[in-house]
Specification:
The chain has 421 residues and is of the alpha+beta class. The protein is built from 19 helices and eleven strands. Residues 1-43 and 46-52 have low confidence and may be disordered.
Length: 421
């Protein structure tokens, strides 16, 4: 195996603007200095190689070495917390973002110091590596659902960030700051140390959120277990797009992914009051998603009736839904109105799947409207989507009476929903 040259030695870089989950290049412009002595590093690499060790995981007191048949990865222990990898036949090391399950490992760290030989060599190496991380840091990071490597590196570089960990979403944003600042700007630990001492609204503004105390409270209401970069970016986008989103979210606790699904859409957002959002936030995930589907279907039916100049109170009302029960009542009213309309227009395009004795395609607007009335659902509003080739509805006769929906996704027809009466 090739040793480490001085030019290819691992270098210690600033952690925040490192690689994303897709393995993009780590920022190495703000190096704190080169790695250990090249000759010593080469000696340790050889000692940790698969040929020299019976274990694929070795901890030498300074770094954790992960060996596979094709490559070797080195993870420097606390407080450096940098990682590099290379293939065995290569000389140059590349910055690396470990994909280890750090949540399980951090929970495992609670195991008492094992007796000699009490753990398999690989687990013993991981245990020794984790024990270099201060216990209070481990306790702060372990409960998060993801992002543990980035959170650990945040605390290694800027220990004062620990004061922000009572607001899980804020600390998570800082750990992934590179995903929130466009274009990516570089900053050294001294700059970040100064930033985290500023008011939290200023920190969020630095991350691209509106600089308001209301926004600080909203971000603080996101449950730790649902945190993700995607969710936080969606929240930021919704609040930047409309002051109405900030106003609505300011009345809701907790802020769930389903609540954000409503608020991010202008059409859905303008149709609800904080009362609806609060009810959605308090419901189980499956029931909350059902309310979103009910909201979309109700708005589609109202739009369809307006397009046909049907003068009905439920279709033309400009008032927002006040509660989930109000939404259900107005939904059912529109179902009845569409069923009474009984539009007999030209047939729909041919179905993607032919029917049989168990289910039949609903091939005309009248059949679709009749199915909605008999099954007490909102399929009567799907006519436009069927004509556009986006979905197709079927009457299910066996094993029990229901309505079935197929949707076109990426060129394939797939099952979307089956609704019994």
């Amino acid at each position: 195996m090739c040793g480490l040259s001085h030019r290819s030695s691992p270098r210690v870089g600033y952690p925040f603007f490192g690689p994303d989950a897709d393995g993009a290049a780590m920022n190495a412009n703000l190096d704190a200095g080169v790695g250990p002595d090249p000759a010593a590093a080469a000696t340790k690499e050889v000692a940790a190689s698969p040929a020299a060790s019976r274990s694929p995981v070795v901890f030498d007191g300074e770094s954790l070495w992960l060996n596979s048949a094709s490559r070797i990865t080195r993870i420097a222990a606390w407080p450096v917390l940098q990682a590099w990898t290379k293939r065995h036949q290569e000389e140059a090391w590349r910055p690396h973002r470990p994909r280890a399950d750090f949540r399980s490992l951090l929970l495992f760290r609670a195991v008492a110091a094992p007796e000699p030989g009490g753990l398999p060599p690989s687990l013993a190496a991981w245990h020794a590596f984790l024990m270099t991380i201060p216990p209070h840091v481990q306790d702060a990071v372990a409960p998060y659902p993801s992002g543990h490597w980035d959170l650990l590196r945040l605390l290694a570089a800027v220990p004062d960030c620990l004061d922000l960990f009572d607001a899980a979403a804020l600390s998570y944003c800082l750990a992934f700051a590179r995903r929130f600042r466009m274009p990516v700007t570089e900053s050294d630990p001294k700059t970040l140390t100064h930033l985290v001492r500023r008011p939290r609204r200023a920190i969020l503004a630095w991350l691209g959120f509106p600089e308001q105390e209301t926004v600080v409270r909203i971000v603080g209401r996101i449950p730790m277990q649902v945190l993700s970069v995607r969710l936080l970016r969606t929240l930021r986008m919704a609040m930047l797009a409309s002051p109405d989103a900030v106003r609505l979210l300011g009345h809701v606790r907790p802020i769930t992914p389903t609540v954000l699904e409503i608020v991010r859409s202008r059409v859905l957002r303008e149709a609800v009051t904080p009362g609806v959002l609060q009810e959605v936030a308090e419901r189980e995930d499956a029931d909350a998603k059902l309310q979103v589907r009910l909201l979309r279907d109700t708005l589609d039916m109202a739009s369809l009736l307006r397009a046909r100049s049907v003068q009905v109170a439920a279709a033309n009302s400009a008032s927002r839904f006040r509660s989930c029960s109000d939404l259900k009542r107005r939904h059912d009213t529109l179902v009845e109105e569409l069923a009474l309309l009984r539009v007999r227009g030209r047939p729909f395009p041919p179905p993607p799947v032919q029917g049989n004795a168990d289910f039949e395609p609903l091939g005309t607007p009248y059949e679709l409207s009749r199915e909605g009335r008999l099954q007490q659902n909102c399929v009567a509003s799907y006519g436009r989507r069927i004509r556009q080739g986006r979905c197709y509805l079927y009457r299910v006769l066996r094993p029990e009476r229901a309505t079935l929906a197929l949707v076109l996704r990426r060129g394939n027809w797939v099952l979307d929903d089956v609704r019994a009466k």
